[in-house]
Specification:
The chain is α+β, with helices and mostly antiparallel strands. The chain is about 35% helix and about 25% strand. The relative contact order is 0.11.
Length: about 180
């Protein structure tokens, strides 16, 4: 098995080849379904994946109307962004044959709380970002190239950096 940086390069090549041959669809929807909870948490979802499933919960901190019993939704967004970016960075490094011996990532979302609480107009989120701490024998300029490519290819970074269409729909069911 051809693995570098805990990335299975053999499987990635097989997937790219299957895409080239048209054996798998060129687009994939990643979906999550959940429901509002009226108990200890405010929202619950089950995330299913290839080898299992996990139940996750969110709750707002008490100043924002929750009970503080679970991570808030923005924390999950930052976690998803950091995990996605890390995966993209390490995959690019592996494809280039660059060994990374350690990667630590810190992410953030700077939320304008005055806008959240309707005290002013303006963007709700002012900035998001990631900071990488990399240990590698590779030259800094090569690691910078990998970082710049990750900026372009990471789905989470792309979503927050570009105007991606957002859609919401409503289905109403009456109780009566």
């Amino acid at each position: 098995m051809d693995v570098l940086n805990n990335v299975n390069l053999e499987k990635m090549r097989e997937s790219a080849d299957a895409l080239r041959r048209g054996e798998v669809p060129p687009e994939k929807d990643f979906t999550v379904e959940g429901e509002w909870s009226f108990g200890d948490h405010q929202f619950r979802a089950v995330l299913e994946f290839e080898r299992g499933r996990v139940e996750v919960f969110t709750d707002q901190p008490t100043p924002a109307g929750g009970k503080g019993n679970a991570p808030n939704p923005v924390q999950y967004c930052v976690f998803a962004m950091v995990a996605c970016y890390s995966t993209t960075f390490m995959s690019i490094a592996a494809k280039r044959g660059v060994e990374i011996t350690s990667l630590r990532v810190r992410g953030y979302s700077r939320v304008n709380m005055r806008a959240v609480f309707d005290l002013e107009e303006g963007p709700v989120v002012k900035e998001v970002g990631v900071h990488l701490e990399v240990e590698s024998d590779a030259p800094v300029d090569v690691l910078e190239e990998i970082r710049e490519e990750a900026n372009r290819k990471c789905p989470a970074a792309f979503t927050v950096s570009n105007s991606v269409p957002f859609k919401s729909t409503l289905e109403v069911r009456n109780n009566g």
